[in-house]
Amino acid sequence: MSKMLIDVGSTYFKVCDEGSISHHFRNFDKDIYDDLLFKCGDDIKKHKKEEIQICSSANGGLSTLIIGLTESFSLKYASNIAYNSGINIIETVVYSQIESYAIPSENLDVVIVVGGIDSVETVFDKTLINYLEKLTYSNIVYVGSSTQVEFLEKNIEKLVVLPNIIDNKLKMVENELKEYLTNLYQADIMGKEDIKRLYELTSNQIYSTPYIVNQSLPFIHTKLDVADPFIVIDIGGATTDIHYSKDLVDDNIITDNEYDRLVFKKLGVYKSRESLVHTAKNNEFVYELLAHLNTTENMLDSKEEKATKLLMQLSIFLVLYKISHHHKSYLNIKLDTLNSIVLTGGITKVLDNAEMEDIISFFYKKLLHFNITPTLVVDKDYEIWTLGMSR
Amino acid sequence: MSLLQRDREIIVANQYVDNFDFAEVEEFIKNANKELFISHKFKTHKDKTLVQPRGGFPTFDKMYSLYEQFAPVVDILPMTIDSHTRLNDYGSAAKMLRLSEETETDLLNGYPLINHGYRTTRKMVTHFNTPVSLRHGTPDARLLVEMAIASGVFEIEGGPITYILPYSKNFPQDKAFLYWKHVERVCAQYSTLNEPINRESFGPLTATLVPPCITIVIQICEMLLSLEEGVKSFSVSFAQTGSLNQDLVTSKVLRKAANKYAEKIGVTDATINLVYHQWMGAFPRDKFKSDSLIDIGAMIAGMVKADKIITKTRAEAFGIPTKEDNAQAVSNVQYTLNALRGIPTFVDEEEEENLSREVDEIFEAIFNDSADTLWRKVFNSIKNGIIDVPFSPHIINNNELITVRDKNSNIRIYKKGKLPLSDKSFKYEQSKIDLGENPNSVVNQIIHDIGVML
């Protein structure tokens, strides 16, 4: 049985039919189903529904806000589960300072409330309820101390209660929340008419693209010259995903994955171009990088094709910067112990290897003072995606 | 090019490695003097317990001078690696090495092998022409092991369990299994060129009330993982438990079970050695008591006919021993072992039967795990608490196994957690425990038992 693999991205369709991969720039005036049929209809018709596998990142993923008691346990655990379920985190709120947080203006797909082990009492009070009343959200799930369930169920409508994600030994319990979030993702696909119609083409489940990529990583060495520990940087049109080997972080988390995922929502070259430019202009090293590339900041605001290329180079740099120890964030990755960096996504279609290598080498020299950089592997033919889909 | 070789080439292309030359290293190993191989020394000194101290200094000069002091009295030289290198932080090791050289103060707790490089280190190792053992504690030792073997260090200690559960809080256990699988393959590949590279597991674990059944199971798991990759010389080890009887029983069951399980996976051509560590727990501050404890350790090594003993010094309670302390300890141990030649041994059959049964019960559960590879079966068993190491700091460890000493100082299982022991085995353990009239005194008992040698 020959499989046909389709990835619906925010800017491209990627189609793998009998081992050969083609790309089709999306027409945003058409809905996804019509556009896909227009471009690949003949090939699709050659296959039965069960031979077609589709994954998608085009519905943008779900957005979440997490309210937790501590950075080191509840927020860290919930963030890890959310990222690995393909969910984008809009904000994490430390409960003790909840009143100082701005209220996000956007509609949140899900709010996650977490905190305390099961023996802890009086964790949440009216302050939480007041804060939640100001948010706009579609779903809310509680995964904290069981002692709080009664109070929260009484005060929060449509609250879904799942087992605590922190057990009594402070270990993470991920399965129930992960399953809930993955199901929400499916429900979200089904709720989006143009993606829902893709089920007319396949009898298989449509997964999120980051999930597919993540699942393929333990087998990546069968396709690419990669040595552990490595990171995969998937720079697409809307978001940038990092998949990293778990030994690259110092975390108190046990997960079933060998590789975890992190998302930067605002470093995409097309759909989040403005925020990428803004981030670049505020980075202390970017001006030196621009000089190194023999250009100036004016190019960042230009609409020329050259500017897109430059933005892609900057996004590689900014991603590395944001996960390095130069920038305090949800997590820092030990870039000094990396053996390989894999670049994939739309970026590989625009930049050549030397242009990507140049940025990585600049980063390592400038910020880590290294002359030797990890080996760069460019997944131009989307081997990782094909591997994940095939498996 | 094989996947293994491709990985190796990526790994040695490191900021801190100066042109690693695989072909030259292979040539060096092919032509290396057999005296550098501990596997050869085990073969040629069958009736002797080889003596190995501990030790490692940051600078080349100090390391050289340590070896000068050791060489006349030891059978195996140690190369203890510093903590930064153990964590793959070669940048910090480089800084501290430079400062150590400039200030003539030891700012590292071991030898930073990556920073010294294999060409320099090899000069020292080949000069002394005595086997060197690599002692580290590194979860990802792939680069370190390449550098060690290229230097002429042909014994590699460690493993994916024994260098994780006692040492690390959160290095991913699954990654450790994969990284050590790489190490085993490298050792196996080099073993075909000359005498075998010897792999050694680290039996003491946390050195705190670890029951013998856990020590034995973990030793054998690491041995099997090594043998299945083609390693031909392996040392299982354990540390002085604080009970002479338990040490004798442990050694006998460990030897028997190691051979039995090696055969079970179809390996009959590997040499399995037994290594004994002198007391690894809290050491007395009274140096005369320390001497006594060390003498008892030497005597037990003689009684269990260990292939190698790893020594401690009377300065243990006070910090890193000087080379003089070490040389004196080695000399005393050699003297005791010589004096005890031919010492008879005995075994408590009831204890042996119970311990063998416990080991088999745990292995039955490990082998029954549904995973398709041995490493994943062992990994799942650690996650599920089938293997549980008392006082391990690692987040994956189940920490439900509680042990205390009985009136004869044997380590007994008080609460078995998720250890798959039969009622018969567990009842036997329980029958030996006497907490006096107050059963709530278990915490005090544990505190007492940890400091039993003080």
Structure, described:
The complex is a heterodimer of chains A (391) and B (454). Chain A has 14 helices and 15 strands. By secondary structure, chain A is of the alpha/beta class. In chain A, the strands form three sheets. In chain A, strands 3-2-1-4-10 form a five-stranded mixed beta sheet, with helices on both faces. In chain A, strands 6-5-7-8-9 form a five-stranded parallel beta sheet, sandwiched between helices. In chain A, strands 13-12-11-14-15 form a five-stranded mixed beta sheet, sandwiched between helices. In chain A, helix 7 (209-216) crosses helix 14 (383-390), helix 8 packs across helix 11 and helix 11 runs parallel beside helix 13 (353-368). The radius of gyration of chain A is 22 Å and the shape is globular. Chain A starts with a strand and ends with a helix. The model of chain A has no long low-confidence stretch (mean pLDDT 87). With 454 residues, chain B is of the alpha/beta class. Chain B has 18 helices and ten strands. Chain B has helices at residues 3-12, 22-31, 38-44, 60-70, 83-86, 90-103, 113-116, 118-128, 142-151, 173-191, 212-227, 244-264, 287-303, 323-339, 349-368, 374-383, 423-431, 442-450; strands at residues 50-52, 77-80, 132-135, 155-157, 198-200, 233-239, 271-277, 308-310, 402-405, 411-415. In chain B, the strands form two sheets. An eight-stranded parallel beta sheet of chain B has the order 1-8-7-6-5-4-3-2, sandwiched between helices. A two-stranded antiparallel sheet of chain B has the order 9-10. In chain B, a hairpin with a 5-residue loop joins strand 9 (402-405) and strand 10. In chain B, helix 13 (287-303) crosses helix 14 (323-339). The mean pLDDT of chain B is 95. The interface between A and B is medium-sized, with 27 and 25 residues.
